[in-house]
Amino acid sequence: AVTADAASKKVDLKELNVQFVPSSQADTIQAKAKPLEKLLKKQLGIPVHVTISTDYNTVVEAMGSGKVDMGFLPPDPYVQAHKQYGAKVILQSQRYGINDKKNDGSDTDKLVDYYRALVLVKKDSGIKNAKDLKGKKIAVQNPTSDAGYIFPVVDLNKKGMNVVKNSDLVTVKGHDQGAISVLNGDTDAAFIFDDARNLVKKDNPDAFKDTRVLEYTAKIPNDTITLRKGISKADTKTIQNAMLKVSKTDKGKKIMKDVYSWAGVTKSKDSNFDTVRKYQKQVEDIK
Amino acid sequence: MNATLPERQFSEKWHVKGSLAVLLFVLIFIGSGYNTGVSTSFSWDQFWQLLIRMMHPDWAYVSSIITPIAETIQMALVGTLLGTIIAIPFSLLAARNIVKNTYLRGIIRFFLNLVRALPDLLLAAVFVAIVGIGPMAGVGALTIFSFGMISKLFYEAIETIDEGPIEALTAVGANGIQKIVFAVIPQVMNQFLSFFLYTLEINVRASTVLGYLGAGGVGLYLDQTLSLFRYDRTAIVILAILVVVIVVDGISNRLREALA
Amino acid sequence: MGNGLGTIKVNDVSKIYPNGTIGLDHINLDIKSGEFVVIVGLSGAGKSTLLRAINRLHDVSEGEILLDDVDITKSKGKALRQQRRNIAMIFQNFNLVKRATVARNVLSGRVGYYSTFRSTFGLFSKEDKEKAAANLDRVNMLDKYYTRADELSGGQQQRVAIARAMMQSPNVVLADEPIASLDPKTTKMVMDDLQHLNDLGMTVVVNLHSVELAMSYATRIIGLRAGKLVYDKPIEQVSEHDFDEIYAESGDGE
Amino acid sequence: MGNGLGTIKVNDVSKIYPNGTIGLDHINLDIKSGEFVVIVGLSGAGKSTLLRAINRLHDVSEGEILLDDVDITKSKGKALRQQRRNIAMIFQNFNLVKRATVARNVLSGRVGYYSTFRSTFGLFSKEDKEKAAANLDRVNMLDKYYTRADELSGGQQQRVAIARAMMQSPNVVLADEPIASLDPKTTKMVMDDLQHLNDLGMTVVVNLHSVELAMSYATRIIGLRAGKLVYDKPIEQVSEHDFDEIYAESGDGE
Amino acid sequence: MQKIQRNSWQKYGPYIITLVVVLIFVWAFTGIPLSTVKPQAMQVTKSIINGLFHPEWSYVYTGDGEDLVSALIETLAIAFLGTFISAILTLPFAFLAARTKKGFFTPRSTLGKLILTIIRVFPEIVLAIMFIKAVGPGAYAGVLAVSIHSIGMLGKLFSEAIENIDRGPNEAIVAAGGSTLDGLTLATIPAVLPEFMNYTLYRFEIAVRSAAILGIVGAGGIGAPLIFALQTRQWPKVGIILLGIIVMVTVIDFLSGQLRKRLV
Ligand SMILES: Nc1ncnc2c1ncn2[C@@H]1O[C@H](COP(=O)(O)OP(=O)(O)OP(=O)(O)O)[C@@H](O)[C@H]1O
Ligand SMILES: Nc1ncnc2c1ncn2[C@@H]1O[C@H](COP(=O)(O)OP(=O)(O)OP(=O)(O)O)[C@@H](O)[C@H]1O
Ligand SMILES: [Mg+2]
Ligand SMILES: [Mg+2]
């Protein structure tokens, strides 16, 4: 058995530790690790351990200490992981785009590796353009959130509306909470990803009917698959190909869909995230 | 005098029951160790890293968290108070030495178990879902949480009191409530107070979890500083909570002594 | 008084503890109003068990106990409370609320006469407060009125317990070794107090270990041994060496 | 024995409780080896306080207490423990570990002779176990060897406490009202046991409330009143009515 | 009757304290804006309750080791190890922190209490990250985080139990010449052990429910599934997880009740 293992072993790593935090865009998440473990193990010939976390910080820190080799990270944590511990993106996830025209949250049939954020207001609200947000209450996410803070703030600023200074920002946890707070009238607007209303559709059937999108932001790159620093070039390549292969099989596709609500993965490079870095810089200047 | 030790049955002599219990315990222990993959590998240098980064707190951040920490205290106070008020009648009804009716007690206890089974996370999430974001949700979650916890602590405290005074009051012809007022409350008052403060403290600390779900308070800031990798600010948040807890603790100790 | 109240009839009462110990073994007794009964017996003979049964502090396994012809073993709720109110009990181990003041402990003897509401808020009448002070004075403890019970010496605690019992204005006084921790002077005082209550017409039943005191206060002496009634005579017929018989060990060859 | 060990010298000892109560007030005493001293006094006179001071269960406010010429008020650590090992104490309220068996309670009297390790794991020697059985037998409690202490009657608990004290093979026995809850028969047994220990050469100091017992066992009687030493005579010079004086209230007009 | 005097603190102290306490609570209530319950809240509540009462039974057992049953077992294992390890580690801290002597300032106990407070206050989330850095994500990190966090809580409860016991039996041992340690093992521990066990069991119940920390560390317990189900508002799934937790906690409660009966 030992020799058989050794023969099928395709990388230098003794084992591969994977951790992921389900994307906040996912509208169904299954906390399952085993299926991916099996598929990857078959591809790489080494033991694979997949763990699921609910906090990005742990993934980044564990990659920093070498306890996690591969992490599934959204753009902002990725940029942090890269900056702090030299982690490298190898792949990016793909999703079907959102059919914005229909305003019902349905997908297009085109695979994309980006998404957008939007500014949500009540349908009958008097807020007609960015300037009207002045003095209004806006539900935002943590200042590290791309869709829930950085991109909308920067893009609105470009339109001459400094919400940090002129509006009342209320931090909520989760994009569903942002959407709900608008529906409930707790806030006048919310920064959510496109289209987080899908999350609350089940509990609030009128989620789309009662609301309206004020602005869409620029494109935000999708979630990453990132390797920690110190993995050899050859191994990186092998792992990248293995993941791609997995994503092409029927089984792999189904798992990606069920567990991560991804439609596929595509190769990526660090420079794809320069926009994110740029926005991060810009947001710091908006005071 | 030539006394010999009294004989005991074999099972008593060798503590068969006790030994079996210990054996069972050890087996569960080992099984759990296996299940959770406990090992000896531990990277101390990595372990200290965060602490080292926290060693240089960003003192300027203090001013930003004064309001949220005050909000946390308010939430904790209100939640604990409401929880305690609901808990008192329930704990009396659940105490074996107060309510002799096994069925009534059983029903009450089952209900209390149900309440305590609710994870704090779920409570917070549900309240956020219902009343929306903000301190109201936090207070709701803390109230239910405190209720479950305090009622159990209370009824157990009540069950351990010296029953002599209850007996004396019984002998005097006191009714149930009079017995409680004269013989039970004075004996448990001290413990009630310390459990109240204990829960208050837990509720202050629970703000970290509540913040995780957006139920207001200083927890949100803990979450933010962590996701920005600003451990120098995390340190400030922790210190702020520490100060509050030490104050609560100090009051608790002094009060317990004064009432002892 | 002399109203004929305060009779106790114990009919064929047995008490078996959950762990199997036989506390009382088919006891029959008929105590008249105004008697001063002293119960003697070895340690573990069942004296405390008997007193506690009379007050229904625990249930007996069989038999009935009539207090003024009402069976307390079958009483319930308010009726039971009223029966108990008429029986004062002084405990071997005081049973004070340690964390409460002496005053509150003594006043608690009176709760049987108050509505729950009034007693809860400590709305005791002025008379009762004065009565409490008077009773404390009688046992020489008035200066400790506001002291917490746990700061008292053993003997002092017992005196507070006695004052509490006196608050009840009972028909029957049960006392379980009320003088175990008292000095001779206080002992005499307490026994005299019991005597005094007896003179007022109350029935007094006391567990005692002191033969001397038994002889000088009792109007009737009852002996228990291993849960059985082994002796029951009016004082006139008692001679000191009868006690040797009562105190014989169960196995001493009867 | 008769080895001259077991002397107690109390030099100008005072004890003021934190709440201001004066427990002892400049006490001077010189107890010789082999004496049988009975301390009498009203409830609250300071008898327990004095015994506890001798064993250094609490610190005195001033003065020194020499046990075989070593000042226990200044002893520390191992030396203190060895001094205490030589003094057995019987408490007014038994102080048994309620959740432990009678056997373990009695054996715990022997801890002064064991390393912490051995006593912790209950590794008592066979001799000591037999000694425990013998001592329990002496107080007539052998059949309760494996019973938990909280299932005993008051008197039974006191007898266990006495057996525990006997385990220590002490030079001095201090007993704080050891017979408060005992029947006359057990009382006599216990007093005889104390007498026996005394005959073996141990110094015995007993707090008692019974004048009768004091007169028949003591070789010396000491009287306390409100923390002061008010009486101290060898038994030959004591007459019964001296007690009236000791028992006079502080305010009774001395 | 004779007049019995009380000093002014005895007379007015309770009123002053009551006033201060009332003021504190008034302040606390002012901080909580009474957000009136929204009309939509009814709808949300309804769908939550609806979901909770229609649990997703299929999740109970799937056979792939990632279902409710295995998650609960893993949670139990983590809680069990974490709690009982910490119960042992706690002992020295508890005795250090217990104030057994009166006095205004007691350095030993103050130090002990301070250590315990710091441990307690340290957020679980941060602890979790530290342990993940040290041992990697998974149940092991969960055990460590639970056990360290529990020390702070148990240490406090234990030390108070020690402070509250009847010192009589301990005194008797000391009077017999036993060392402080003898008093501890022969009198104090038997007296406090049931209470220690009680608190440990109690803490065990709490650990079982502290899903948050386990979810964060990727421990594979019930934490992550619960958090995700909550985040994506899959109420039927929340329902089944909740049911599982309730059953588990009830069983634990029953067992620990039996155990307690035997210990007392
Ligand atoms: N709660 C109990 N459970 C089991 N047995 C008990 C209990 N209380 C008392 N006993 C046993 O019942 C018997 C009678 O006890 P009781 O307390 O009535 O004795 P007593 O005559 O009052 O003795 P003493 O003079 O020592 O107070 C004793 O053998 C005692 O061990
Ligand atoms: N812990 C304490 N704190 C304050 N005062 C106390 C304390 N213990 C005892 N006292 C007081 O000290 C005095 C002496 O008490 P002590 O217990 O020595 O009396 P005693 O002679 O043993 O009485 P008794 O015969 O009733 O046992 C009493 O007035 C008592 O109230
Ligand atoms: Mg008795
Ligand atoms: Mg005394």
TrEMBL record, chain B:
Residues 69-252 form the ABC transmembrane type-1 domain. Keywords: Cell membrane, Membrane, Transmembrane, Transmembrane helix, Transport. It is a multi-pass membrane protein. The keyword Cell membrane applies. InterPro entries: MetI-like, MetI-like_sf, PhnE/PtxC. Gene3D superfamilies: MetI-like (1.10.3720.10). The chain crosses the membrane at residues 20-38, 76-99, 120-145, 202-222, 234-252. SUPFAM superfamilies: MetI-like. It is found in: Cell membrane. One of its GO terms (molecular function) is ABC-type phosphonate transporter activity. Its main location: membrane. One of its GO terms (cellular component) is plasma membrane. Belongs to the binding-protein-dependent transport system permease family. PANTHER family: ABC TRANSPORT SYSTEM PERMEASE PROTEIN P69, PHOSPHONATES TRANSPORT SYSTEM PERMEASE PROTEIN. This is Phosphonate transport system permease protein.
TrEMBL record, chains C, D:
This is Phosphonate transport system ATP-binding protein. Residues 8-251 form the ABC transporter domain. The keyword Cell membrane applies. InterPro entries: AAA+_ATPase, ABC_transporter-like_ATP-bd, ABC_transporter-like_CS, ABC_transpr_PhnC, MetN_ABC_transporter-like, P-loop_NTPase. It holds the Pfam family ABC_tran. One of its GO terms (molecular function) is ABC-type phosphonate transporter activity. SUPFAM superfamilies: P-loop containing nucleoside triphosphate hydrolases (SSF52540). Signal peptide: none annotated. It comes from Weissella bombi. The keyword Electron transport does not apply. Keywords: ATP-binding, Cell membrane, Membrane, Nucleotide-binding, Phosphonate transport, Translocase, Transport. Transmembrane segments: none annotated. One of its GO terms (cellular component) is membrane.
From TrEMBL, chain E:
It comes from the Bacteria. It is found in: Cell envelope; Cell membrane; Membrane. This is Phosphonate transport system permease protein. Its main location: other. SUPFAM superfamilies: MetI-like (SSF161098). Gene3D superfamilies: MetI-like. Pfam families: BPD_transp_1. One of its GO terms (cellular component) is plasma membrane. The chain crosses the membrane at residues 12-32, 76-98, 110-132, 138-158, 206-229, 235-255. The keyword Membrane applies. It comes from Weissella bombi. Belongs to the binding-protein-dependent transport system permease family. It is a multi-pass membrane protein. PANTHER family: ABC TRANSPORTER, PERMEASE PROTEIN CC0363, PUTATIVE-RELATED, PHOSPHONATES TRANSPORT SYSTEM PERMEASE PROTEIN. Keywords: Membrane, Transmembrane, Transmembrane helix, Transport.
